[in-house]
Amino acid sequence: MFLKFPVLCLIFHCAYCISHHPILIIVSYDAFKYNFFDTKLVPHMETLKKQGTYADYLLNVFPTKTFPNHHSIATGLYPETHGVLGNTYYDPKTKQVEHIGPQMFRYSNNVVPIWRLNEDQGNGRYSGSMMWPGAYYPYQGKNITYRQDFDDNMDWYKRIDTVISWVTDRKKPANLVMLYIEQPDTYGHIFGANAPQFKDMLRKLDNITKYLQDQLESHHIADKVNVVHLSDHGLITITPQTFINITQYMKGGTYTWAGATPCIQITPHKGHEEEIYTALKDASIKNGHFKVYKKQDFPKQWHYKNNPRSAPILVMADVGWGLDDMIEASKKYAKIFNFTLTNSSEFGVHGYDTSVADMHPYFMARGPKIKKQHKVSPFHTVDLFNLFTELLELPQMPNNGTLGNIVDILNDNKQGRYNVGSVVMVTVGGIVAGLFIIALITVIVLLIIKHRQNLTTVAALNKRFPQTFQNHIESQHLLDAEYA
Ligand SMILES: [Zn+2]
């Protein structure tokens, strides 16, 4: 009898070892294309998708590469604003090609990722990152509470167990965790999306999705944690028959190369700008399967040119085509993974324009603040930041996303700050107030006009007729006939 009370206390206490703030886990599977559900290899994901809210696809940012897109998801900003312009880029400040590291992600102190914004509110808000690209580094001089740097040797189940341990930590329970898994991207690049190895990876991702859900349920927190599942981009499969050697058109030692198929950032050395542009442009016309842009001509919808890290020349392979780095990478993959490289060997690539459907990632979400069995229209990757701030009840931050694009994901049950009821009330209230002001102004203007007309009418009549009219009403019938 006496033992029961402490045991019950322990059970009760552990069931509530979570943050008193709204809780959100964001899960990214790299290169999980929107239509991988059609493979029928991900039944658990399909079930979750139908239970919560999903979109057919997300409209991601250019270039459709991993680091720019993950940072746009985390900040709500386009690459030209957050400064992560590619998986590598040439930095005119350091005069070298930069790879992943704090210098890549910390372009400006004004860039505040969601994990930093969450923890900056204090009052027991803690953020965690399980390998999310860029979240390992300090922002605004501060690190978040829980961080695991990228380590592809770390078992996926262990990653999820660790995430759950952060969320249920007795002293500092995380209320925001970013979870990143590098597949199916890695196997997609090496084997292409039709390979059995790739398909096996989709099955494994399906299994860990179920594992995460099972863990939330076994900890009795599934109805308290919002989970957003998404990806950064899709991919397509190409073969060596479409690889183009573009370095043959430029003199060695006259430029710096950054980026990878299909978009290459070329920085000509001083004095070689026009020579390189003209050579590449001529070659692109002759070849017909890649395009060359000067920085001032980058399409506006890329949101890519207004940044000093943006290279003076960009080479873009057409969809389905690869460039020099693929010639090298395919040889390397064949050697490391022990297969014979042929003209029909398949490799996965991404990075093409955001208008290419194969580049689009998936989106689905579930949890207490998210609508059940609901589908929303496709929206932009940069809109996600607003979704996160709404789910976490954080202050709004200026960003490139549109709040209105994500409101329909949020539950109507008063937990969202912008539930449909309040939106309708605010809208109707605004319209009524606006109409009242317009009516008031109209009445005042009419009274002024009437008063002036009265004076004019009386003056006109006094001029035309020798008698004096005392007021407008008295004189009106005389003028009406003249102007009828
Ligand atoms: Zn990626």
UniProtKB/TrEMBL annotation:
<feature type="transmembrane region" description="Helical">
    <location>
        <begin position="423"/>
        <end position="449"/>
    </location>
</feature>
<dbReference type="InterPro" id="IPR017850">
    <property type="entry name" value="Alkaline_phosphatase_core_sf"/>
</dbReference>
<keyword id="KW-1133">Transmembrane helix</keyword>
<keyword id="KW-0732">Signal</keyword>
<feature type="signal peptide">
    <location>
        <begin position="1"/>
        <end position="17"/>
    </location>
</feature>
<protein>
    <recommendedName>
        <fullName>Extracellular Endonuclease subunit A domain-containing protein</fullName>
    </recommendedName>
</protein>
<keyword id="KW-0472">Membrane</keyword>
<dbReference type="InterPro" id="IPR002591">
    <property type="entry name" value="Phosphodiest/P_Trfase"/>
</dbReference>
<dbReference type="GO" id="GO:0016787">
    <property type="term" value="F:hydrolase activity"/>
</dbReference>
<dbReference type="Pfam" id="PF01663">
    <property type="entry name" value="Phosphodiest"/>
</dbReference>
<keyword id="KW-0812">Transmembrane</keyword>
